[in-house]
Write a structure and sequence with these properties.
The structure holds two protein chains of two kinds. Chain A is an all-alpha fold. Chain A contains nine helices and no strands. Chain A has one domain. The radius of gyration of chain B is 22 Å and the shape is flat. The chains are: A mainly alpha, B mainly alpha.
Chain lengths: 192, 226
């Protein structure tokens, strides 16, 4: 049982990395991967929202969707967006310091494909409540890892002599491709 | 907001402000499902339908939607159309649906669609909103087809795989670049396209600069002669 959960976590983090394998959440990946500190905070906010999302999705899967399967997409997006909004308000009230760290990223993340993707994939694979939680943690950790790696690479290229042609997003995408190539190596991690 | 002609409304999205290649919006589907031409076409068609439908409704209902909850309303409208596409594809083309899978549901969070509603459809009459949606949808389709063609030709050595009109381009001895149809290939393909566009842009800028310089030289020569 425990082994299976670890497997879900590690494979969501490394093998089917949300950013580098499924291309989910590319907007923040391109947008806020300029500095390692920002990238790390964005990643942590992602883990946080993903965990909430997973809980909500499990709840909806058990209580709502069996009765109204056509509401899948609408209910996911609406419930997740409003819940994150509520959580944001609570954090703002309870812990202003944490809000300053994560706050600006929360609304950005909510309509991010990685979040909805998590809910949809989790439903598609028929994960239970606990499975889903581990899946969310793994996916969030994977997104954080990709963001931090990308930010460190970009900090390096900042100082190097890059040809003018590559100063747009082209270089970032090539870097991302190389990272993705490296992560493909992890698919040998599990042989079934 | 500046007035634009109908012609501008349509063609802006097609190339000059292409959602994927210039604005870098809607990258997830552009990278994730463009491993064959057929998948690219299906994704582009689904997105175009959602974009047209939601632009129509947002433009029709713009006077009824309260400003404070406009984004949520747009998302609800978009999600409704995505549900329609999701169920229609599931029923009509199960093979394609199996390939695209969850990415159809993820059209909801394609920032390109929400962007068009917020920037355009919510402020303009229905006809113009539809034209703009058609233009942006066409631009999205062009970008996806570019990626899909490139990736399928190199990655499988075929064209239009999965349809009855499949071409086998290089014969049986072709060793396919498997990397092109796997995830890194998506990043590399878009990266190369963007590098190419940057290169063209820079050449154009240089040409402009030289022309400008020549003009100013002529002007000073004329002034001195006078």
């Amino acid at each position: 049982m425990m082994g299976e959960l670890i497997l879900i976590l590690v494979s969501a983090m490394l093998v089917t990395n949300f950013t580098l394998f499924y291309f989910l959440g590319l907007c923040p990946f391109m947008g806020v991967s300029g500095k390692v500190g920002t990238a790390l905070r964005m990643g942590l906010a992602n883990i946080f929202v993903m965990t909430i999302t997973s809980l909500v999705a499990s709840f909806l899967n058990i209580y709502v969707l069996p009765h109204a399967p056509y509401l899948r997409i609408i209910s996911f997006i609406v419930v997740i967006a409003s819940l994150v909004q509520i959580v944001e308000m609570v954090i703002k009230k309870v812990s202003p310091a944490l809000f300053r760290e994560l706050g600006i990223f929360l609304p950005l993340i909510t309509t991010n494909c990685a979040i909805l993707g998590l809910a949809v994939f989790q439903t598609g694979r028929g994960y239970t409540f606990v499975d889903g939680l581990f899946y969310a943690l793994g996916a969030g950790a994977g997104v954080t890892l990709a963001l931090v790696l990308m930010a460190s690479l970009r900090e390096q290229t900042e100082l190097s002599d890059v040809p003018a042609v590559a100063r747009n997003m082209g270089l970032v995408l090539i870097l991302a491709g190389t990272l993705s190539l490296a992560f493909m190596g992890f698919s040998g991690l599990f042989t079934s | 907001m500046r007035e634009t002609t109908a012609h501008q409304d349509f063609f802006r999205g097609v190339w000059k402000e292409n959602p994927v290649l210039v604005q870098l919006l809607g990258l997830c589907p552009a990278l994730a499902v463009t491993n064959t031409v057929l998948n690219s076409l299906a994704m582009a068609g689904a997105t175009l339908f959602v974009l047209l439908g939601s632009s129509l409704f947002v433009s029709l209902l713009k006077s009824l939607i309260p400003n404070e909850v406009r984004i949520s309303t747009y998302i609800l409208i978009i999600a409704t159309f995505v549900t329609i596409v999701d169920m229609a594809l599931h029923a009509l083309a199960p093979a394609v649906y199996g390939e695209l899978g969850a990415f159809i549901a993820l059209i909801v969070v394609n920032c390109m669609i929400l962007g068009r509603q917020e920037a355009f459809a919510s402020k303009r009459p229905v006809g113009r909103a539809l034209l703009d949606a058609l233009g942006s949808g066409a631009g999205f389709t062009i970008a996806l087809l570019m990626m899909g063609t490139f990736r399928e030709i190199l990655g499988s050595g075929t064209l239009l795989q999965g349809t009855p009109w499949v071409f086998n381009l290089f014969g049986p001895n072709y060793e396919p670049w498997v990397i092109m149809i796997s995830p890194p290939g998506g990043f590399f393909t878009l990266g190369f396209i963007l590098l190419f566009m940057g290169w063209r842009e820079e050449k154009k800028a240089k040409k402009r600069e030289i022309r400008h310089w020549a003009h100013s030289l002529q002007a000073t020569a004329r002034k001195e002669a006078a």
